[in-house]
Write a structure and sequence with these properties.
- There is one protein chain.
- The protein is of the alpha+beta class.
- It folds into three domains: 3-114, Rossmann fold (3-Layer(aba) Sandwich), CATH 3.40.50; 125-141 and 215-346, 2-Layer Sandwich (D-amino Acid Aminotransferase, Chain A, domain 1), CATH 3.30.470.20; 145-212, 2-Layer Sandwich (Dna Ligase, domain 1).
- The chain is built from twelve helices and 13 strands.
- The protein has helices at 16-29, 75-80, 102-110, 119-126, 128-137, 150-155, 157-167, 191-201, 246-250, 265-281, 316-322, 328-346; strands at 3-10, 35-42, 48-50, 88-91, 145-149, 172-176, 186-188, 207-212, 217-225, 230-238, 256-258, 286-294, 300-306.
- Strand 2 and strand 3 (48-50) form a beta hairpin.
- The structure holds adenosine-5'-triphosphate and magnesium ion (3 copies).
- One magnesium ion is lined by residues 94, 180-181, 306.
């Protein structure tokens, strides 16, 4: 019998469109002889819509967007009722309400195996401040940073500006603590742009992190596995823009990805060892993409990990594995196998 594979995508997140691209690509890679594919679309508003099982890959992401059908109950209810409940779920969601442990919690209580990271790793990995605090516990080198929440900023803006200007130097990177795909991130080069950057980031999150900007190469590593995770080859990003922003990631196609990255010897070993240490301290499972800075002096600094990295066929994570000998369809199979293994392991 075919296994019922639920693809959960879309999401109430600023990264909704990215997730739709991922879901379209994944349908192209699934073996329809082996799986019955159930599309489960989460709208921008956070409503769940279960579609009819797919029999062929989705040609466009438009095909995977479902309009409301008033004659049917809301899909989340349908879904929770056990009416066609999937045997296993691929949560192809990025950002809040998807990459942050919330849907993972739902699948946990429903006792359905799901691919990727669990509740703890997902939520700790989504919050850049918590993630950095955990990284510090295991001695992973990071850039200096300042963090605060909206109410603190509103209460005493000048205190926070003074603190940032004392503890950090320009340029600084101002980020919403809980996002991805560079959404809400700005590079601040002076006092005025710093204030504007904080106000902008506050549109996306109540918690802000302001990091010391570094001038360095950007190297990424894919990690795959559960208790004994393995690293992919290294990849380097050469952004053409001021930094690797949203457009550079998904729209302009100008960013050059060097795979494998020209990094050798000790630096390569350090990058991989740090990626595994980061994976373990967050108690990750399935996959992560670890993002690093490597300075001219070959100093390796961890930037972050992504618990559900970009997953379109032109995204770094699948390309890293392709260059390590794991094709896109094999990668999906592996994630499914790892999900089942983890589900068994928990019992
Ligand atoms: P994603 O999850 O898609 O990787 P993100 O939204 O979590 O992105 P970051 O990876 O933290 O964001 O930052 C996005 C980009 O901004 C980096 O790839 C890099 O180009 C630049 N950047 C971020 N922080 C710094 C920093 N401290 N110094 C220099 N460049 C930085
Ligand atoms: Mg990220
Ligand atoms: Mg991300
Ligand atoms: Mg990143």
């Amino acid at each position: 019998m075919k296994r019922k594979l639920g693809l959960v995508y879309g999401g109430k997140s600023a990264e909704h469109e990215v997730s739709l691209s991922t879901a379209t690509a994944v349908t192209n890679a699934i073996d329809f002889g082996k799986y019955e594919v159930i599309p489960i679309y989460i709208t921008y508003e956070g409503e769940w819509r279960k579609g009819e099982p797919l029999t062929t890959p989705a040609e466009t992401k438009e095909q995977l967007r479902f309009e409301r059908d008033k004659t049917k109950p809301d899909s989340i209810h349908d879904f929770l009722n056990g009416n066609g409940t999937p045997d296993i779920i691929l949560p192809l969601l990025h950002g809040t309400n998807g990459e942050d442990g919330t849907v993972q919690g739902l699948f946990e209580v429903m006792n359905i195996p799901y691919a990727g990271n669990g509740v703890l790793a997902s939520s700790a990995g989504m919050d850049k401040v918590v993630m950095k605090q955990l990284f510090a516990l295991v001695g992973l080198k990071q850039v200096p940073y300042v963090h605060f929440i909206r109410t603190q900023w509103k209460a005493d803006q000048s205190y926070w500006i003074k603190k940032m200007e004392e503890e950090l130097t320009f340029p600084m990177f101002v980020k919403p603590a809980n996002l991805g795909s560079s959404v809400g991130i700005s590079k601040a080069t002076d006092h005025d742009s710093l204030i504007a950057a904080v106000d902008f980031a506050l549109k996306f999150d109540r918690k802000i992190i302001v990091e010391q900007g570094v001038s360095a190469r950007e190297i990424e590593v894919g990690v795959l596995g559960n208790d004994d995770p393995q690293c992919s080859v290294l990849g380097e990003i050469k952004p053409v823009a001021a930094f690797y922003d949203y457009e550079a990631k998904y729209q302009d196609g100008n960013t050059e990805l060097l795979i494998p990255a020209p990094v050798q010897g000790e630096v390569e070993t350090t990058l991989k060892e740090m990626a595994i240490r980061a994976f373990k301290v967050l108690d990750c499972s399935g996959l992560v993409r670890a993002d690093f800075f490597v300075t001219d002096q070959d100093e390796v600094i961890i930037n972050e990990v992504n618990t559900m990295p970009g997953f379109t066929p032109t995204s770094m994570f699948p390309l890293l594995w392709q260059n390590t000998g794991v094709s896109y369809p094999e990668l999906i199979d592996t994630l499914i196998e790892l999900a089942l293994e983890r589900h068994e392991e928990k019992k």
